[in-house]
Design goal:
5-stranded parallel sheet; Rossmann fold; alpha/beta; GMP Synthetase, Chain A, domain 3
Length: 630
């Protein structure tokens, strides 16, 4: 067993302790098994223990298979009643701009504005099941708009304000929104970006739009949000009840083949899954202050938004997390007394290389939990957090996806944290690691991440996929009746998980599968290397591994450093981890949510067409790889 980086203090007052008492178990492994074997009882407990408004009815979970299961078919509820339950005076949304401007909204204010939005949408003609969309910064109006849409049973879908017109149209042309909320300008890295020209192009190609509403005082041809709600005078509280499986959100896949898939989620299902994660796995409590660095084009925005259901305050930030100084997020954490700070693994790696020491420079006494997601958090990142940020905080590496708007694996506040490991499988999800033959593998053996049990945030369907052909192809072709997520992982002796990367980016060296994260953990120990990206190149009837490295400012990839990297990979991993070539690259392609896209580089090197460049934040970076002759 490894030495734990963190041990929980007394856990009797934790929400998960109450769940263990209800299940009559004394350890997490038994609780997890109980939550799978008794899924109806588990999800009912989450509903009732969380004080969700509405009724579930007498019927529980119907069907054992992903494509024909239904949760609580007699349920009647509207999730906004739960999202906004509690005292009027509590501040529940705080918005912080990159320029330092701050706005706070009490629950009473949010209730009133959300109700005005709901009435305003009804006056436009939006009804239950209609789609409303947003191209927006991470500001309070985005949350108000989503709440108002959900109050009337409409479906909400958002992209980030920095998405290009082609990227937005690839998504919104498919789902045909009736109303569009837009950010006309935003600030990033100290610069003001005007969006009006882009918005005009998008609006001109969405014929289903009946109204465009603009956030901010910037002059535009569209109705301002403030003017719109000022003219909205509902007579009473609007809340249209619906079933548990009423659609509430459309999220988008970010693959590099074909247009993004439009993933339709149940509002109630997403909320119940988020409550199970936030309350029992991450110990978010009423009146906590919860922050996650995200844009409105990433599912973590939806996850943060659902934090309202816990009774906590959510803190929104829009801008560069390293501007005007790399300490920005810790300034926010100190000034706002955050109890929960969520960031990406890439961000943690960046501040580690900048040698920040927030533990010395900031007062973070209220900070109980730090969460990391987006890519695997390497052991150096774990160690950095405990040595330099907060030695007594619960560091929860979490892993899931847009596909389920939640996590497959995440933290447990009553268990130790071990370096490089995600602590536990999510409650209610039968998470396993499969071999290529579909068998559960032993501890320490790498394989495919799968889930064998249904859960509330399984997508309802894909948009415009009447026979579920795209849905089946995405998750159920590899192993019949089992959700295959596309992550390459291994289970540890301590009961946790190590994610080795995406399985579609897994390398094959002399017949042995290697996760890209295995290589990155070692190459990025070198101070000269900012980031690395490995791909498999077709070569002489087989494949070979090619490693690209992005160097720190003023550094070059020398023959000596190349040999040092190869030696480190050989001794710390294995000879099979040593790439055939190591090359310096100027920049790597990333998704809009800042994830590396190895498959796009592999396609360029192997002369395979990349058909959905709109999913990339920086598609121009592929030009350098396209021109390589290896």
């Amino acid at each position: 067993m490894e030495r734990a980086l963190w041990q929980p203090a007394s856990s009797n007052d934790l929400a998960i302790s109450g769940l263990q008492k209800y299940a009559q178990v004394s350890d997490y492994q038994s609780l997890h098994k109980w939550s799978i074997d008794n899924k109806e009882a588990f999800w009912r407990f989450v509903f009732e223990d969380s004080g969700v408004f509405g009724s579930l009815g007498s019927q529980g979970v119907i069907g054992e298979h992903f494509l024909d299961s239904r949760f609580f078919p007699e349920a009647k509820l509207n999730i906004v009643e739960t999202l906004l339950k509690g005292e009027d005076e509590q501040i529940v949304i705080t918005e912080i701009g990159e320029n330092g401007e701050k706005r706070e909204f009490s629950r009473g204010q949010v209730r009133r504005i959300a109700n005005q939005v709901a009435f305003g949408l009804q006056e436009i003609g939006v009804k239950e099941g209609d789609v409303v969309s947003a191209i927006v910064a991470n500001v309070a109006e985005t949350a108000f708009f989503a709440l108002g849409a959900l109050k009337i049973g409409a479906i909400f879908s958002s992209t980030s304000a920095d998405f290009g017109s082609a990227t937005v149209l690839d998504r919104f042309e498919q789902i045909k929104p009736k109303v569009l909320l837009v950010t006309t300008k935003y600030q990033y890295n100290g610069k003001e970006i005007d969006c009006l020209e882009k918005i005009a192009e998008i609006v001109s190609q969405l014929p289903t739009l009946q109204k465009v509403i603009a956030i901010g005082a910037h002059k535009s041809p569209y109705t301002s949000f403030d003017d719109w709600i000022a003219a909205s005078s509902p007579q009473g509280e609007i809340s249209i009840q619906g079933g548990f499986d009423r659609p509430g959100f459309i999220l988008f896949s970010s693959g590099t083949t074909g247009k993004p898939k439009c993933i339709v989620h149940s509002a109630a299902g997403v909320m119940l899954k988020a409550l199970s994660e936030q309350r029992y796995h991450l110990e978010i409590k009423p009146k906590d202050k919860v922050f996650y660095f995200t844009t409105c084009g990433w599912m973590m925005w939806n996850w943060l938004f659902m934090g309202l259901a816990t009774g906590a305050e959510i803190v929104l930030y829009d801008g560069n997390p390293l501007y005007p100084t790399p300490k920005r997020l810790f300034d926010i954490a100190e000034e706002n007394e955050l109890t929960f700070l969520g960031v990406s693994a890439k961000y943690i790696d960046s501040i580690r290389k900048l040698e920040l020491q927030p533990k010395e420079s900031h007062k973070l006494a209220k900070l109980r939990t730090i969460a990391s997601t987006g890519s695997p958090l390497n052991p150096e990142g774990f160690n950095f957090i405990y040595e330099n940020v907060a030695s007594d905080a619960h560091l929860a590496s979490i892993s899931g996806g847009t596909d389920i708007c939640g996590c497959f694996m995440l933290g447990a506040p009553n268990l130790p944290v071990y370096s490089g490991q995600i602590q536990v499988p999510a409650l209610g999800l039968d998470v396993q690691v499969y071999s290529d033959e579909g068998e559960v593998v032993d501890v320490g053996v790498k394989g495919e991440l799968v889930c064998r049990s249904v859960f509330p945030s399984v997508p309802l369907y894909f948009w415009d996929d009447p026979d579920d052909a795209k849905f089946r192809s995405a998750y159920f072709e590899r192993f019949a009746g089992v959700w295959t997520h596309g992550d390459y992982v291994e289970k540890t002796l301590e009961g946790g998980y190590i994610v080795q990367g995406r399985s579609d980016a897994t390398l094959n060296a002399s017949g042995v599968r290697i996760g890209t994260a295995e290589i990155y953990r070692i190459t990025e120990e070198f101070a000269e290397v900012v980031e690395s990206l490995a791909i498999a190149q077709k070569w002489d009837g087989d494949t070979r591994v090619v490693l690209f490295v992005k160097m720190a400012n003023g550094k070059e990839l020398t023959e000596e450093l190349t040999n040092q990297i190869k030696s480190a990979l050989r001794t710390k991993a294995s000879p099979r981890h040593v790439p055939a070539l190591i090359l310096q690259a100027p920049e790597f392609p990333r998704t809009k949510s800042n994830k590396l896209v190895e498959i796009a580089v592999a396609n360029e090197i192997n002369k395979v067409e990349n058909t959905n460049l709109g999913s990339l934040a920086n598609p121009e970076t592929l030009d350098w790889f396209k021109d390589l002759n290896l």
